[in-house]
């Protein structure tokens, strides 16, 4: 009895979905794509891949750089060439300026009121403007210089105390990024920050799993049925409690300062957002919930991406000892000549910057950007992209394509020497930070947080792999997640470097 009832429910749902999809795509000339099964669409073709960006890159080799898939009931367009990436992120930028509603993200993003998930419109424009001009602009990033220097020096001192023993660099770099961001965002290290960051990381992992509710968004009760809603609500309650306290403390301090006529010496990110909230001239007024949503973004989009890039850069340098030596020689020459190990020397480290660029090419931490949504049916090169389709730009596939890169699998920082190709969104074969309106606003902040630790690690230590492992044997397998990290943590043995005479 129970079984036949379940079969009845499944059949009705299947018919409903098939009719809905059939009607929606009736007269459209969709891009090519693999055959689709009822209900699951193309999920079975991706099931054998551990990493979606690799699976989609393989399918694109068969079906082309503009490919149509159905993931559950979600009509999905996958872009795998620079020309099509340009169409989506620039030529038709306005049509693709929103994100799809990911049901699992609703609770933690304060009802899609953060920057990453907010639909395109006056609210998102207000936040993005504050972000680019105030929150994460060059001046603000510079104002956090002493925080970065202090936190990286603390880590270097700790690593120095472990000389000759194995250090889990992956873990330490992640904690470093959390400390820097915590101080930049809240002004001081908050006692709850570890609990906060742990929840943010757990939530990020959950998004990566594309919950069944995300694949069938029209079936609203799935989120509750699968337990995702309750889990997200629990996480949200924890992070919201911590954030509410931090924001309230800031408000009180600001009120006291304003009474006494004193100004903040260094404004942290919460101060900047509260100041913006007080500003009556915004295109869209902000409330406290919005402030908290943006702080969540800074942590969820900002810490793991930067930590992962440092981790991959160190891994690649270990794997390629000649490149490590070249980068290390440069770093040591610059710091020794200047007589100081600080951020001011980074400007001169051209080779290190090339190595970071090459790391972002081989291991973009968001290999398919963040999904975009097509606002209205749009024709690209004769193909129709249906309204509401989700669009994935497979940046990873493009950076590993021999059409655009010689020896794409090899780590060759020199390929960027005297090359105009940069990651600022104008070279569509290389988009680790995306392009167009929805491009990452944290690029300057991220670069500062990536360059300094790398330069300090290379300056202060010589590194080797544990257990006599050869450099070429270092495992470079990618793990599954929204941010594509190393599958195995990077564990290395540091030997302190004795500089000739550095102040
Ligand atoms: C290596 C470090 C980073 C990488 C590779 C990276 C990459 C990206 C990518 C690919 C996107 C989506 C762009 C698109 O859809 O076109 C994005 C969006 C975003 N990133 Fe980053 N990011 C990094 C660091 C940061 C940092 C440090 C912050 C903040 C402190 C940040 C905040 C954001 C936000 C708020 C968005 C959403 C923008 C929007 O939807 O308008 N990111 N990032």
UniProtKB/TrEMBL annotation:
InterPro entries named in the record: Cyt_P450, Cyt_P450_CS, Cyt_P450_E_grp-I, Cyt_P450_sf
Pfam families: p450
Gene3D superfamilies: Cytochrome P450
Signal sequence bounds: none
A molecular function (GO) term: iron ion binding
Record keyword Oxidoreductase present: yes
Cofactor: heme
PROSITE patterns assigned: CYTOCHROME_P450 (PS00086)
UniProt keyword annotations, A-Z: Heme, Iron, Metal-binding, Monooxygenase, Oxidoreductase
Chain residues that bind heme: 440
Family: Belongs to the cytochrome P450 family.
Protein name according to UniProt: Cytochrome P450
């Amino acid at each position: 009895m129970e079984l036949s009832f379940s079969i009845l429910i499944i059949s009705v749902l299947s018919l409903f979905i098939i009719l809905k999809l059939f009607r929606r795509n009736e007269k459209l000339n969709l891009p090519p794509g693999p055959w689709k099964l009822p209900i699951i669409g193309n999920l079975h073709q991706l099931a054998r891949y551990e990493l979606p960006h690799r699976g989609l890159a393989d399918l694109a080799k068969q079906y082309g750089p503009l490919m149509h898939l159905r993931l559950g009931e979600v009509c999905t367009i996958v872009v795998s060439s620079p020309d099509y990436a340009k169409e989506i992120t620039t030529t038709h930028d306005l049509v693709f300026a929103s994100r799809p509603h990911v049901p699992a993200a609703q609770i933690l993003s304060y009802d899609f009121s953060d920057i990453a998930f907010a639909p395109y419109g006056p609210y998102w424009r207000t936040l993005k403007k504050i972000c680019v001009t105030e929150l994460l602009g060059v001046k603000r990033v510079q104002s956090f210089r002493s925080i970065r220097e202090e936190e990286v020096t603390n880590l270097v001192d700790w690593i120095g105390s472990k000389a000759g023993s194995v250090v889990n660099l992956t873990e330490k770099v992640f904690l470093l990024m959390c400390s820097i961001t915590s101080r930049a965002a809240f002004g001081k290290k908050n006692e709850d920050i570890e609990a906060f960051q742990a929840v943010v990381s757990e939530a990020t992992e959950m998004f990566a799993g594309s919950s069944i509710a995300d694949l069938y968004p029209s079936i609203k009760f799935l989120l509750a049925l699968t337990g995702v809603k309750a889990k997200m609500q629990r996480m949200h309650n924890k992070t919201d409690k911590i954030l509410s306290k931090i924001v309230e403390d800031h408000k009180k301090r600001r009120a006291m300062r304003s009474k006494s006529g004193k100004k903040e010496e260094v404004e942290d990110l919460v101060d900047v957002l509260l100041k913006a909230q007080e500003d009556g001239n915004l295109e869209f007024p902000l409330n406290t919930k919005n402030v908290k949503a943006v702080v969540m973004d800074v942590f969820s989009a900002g810490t793991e991406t930067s930590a992962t890039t440092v981790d991959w850069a160190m891994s690649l340098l270990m794997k390629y000892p000649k490149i490590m030596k070249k980068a290390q020689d440069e770093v040591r020459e610059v710091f020794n000549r200047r007589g100081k190990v600080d951020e001011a020397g980074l400007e001169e480290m051209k080779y290190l910057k090339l190595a970071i660029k090459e790391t972002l090419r081989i291991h973009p931490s968001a290999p398919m950007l963040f999904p975009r949504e097509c606002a209205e049916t749009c024709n690209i090169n004769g193909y129709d992209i249906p309204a509401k389709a989700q669009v994935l730009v497979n940046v990873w596939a493009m950076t590993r394509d021999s059409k655009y890169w010689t020896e794409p699998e090899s780590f060759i920082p020199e390929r960027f020497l005297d090359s105009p190709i940069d990651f600022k969104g104008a070279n569509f074969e290389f988009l680790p930070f995306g392009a167009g309106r929805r491009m990452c606003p944290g690029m300057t902040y991220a670069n500062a947080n990536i360059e300094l630790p790398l330069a300090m690690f290379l300056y202060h230590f010589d590194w080797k792999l544990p257990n006599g492992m050869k450099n070429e044997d270092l495992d470079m397998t990618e793990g599954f997640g929204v941010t594509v990290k190393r599958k195995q943590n990077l564990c290395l043995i540091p030997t302190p470097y004795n500089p000739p005479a550095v102040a």
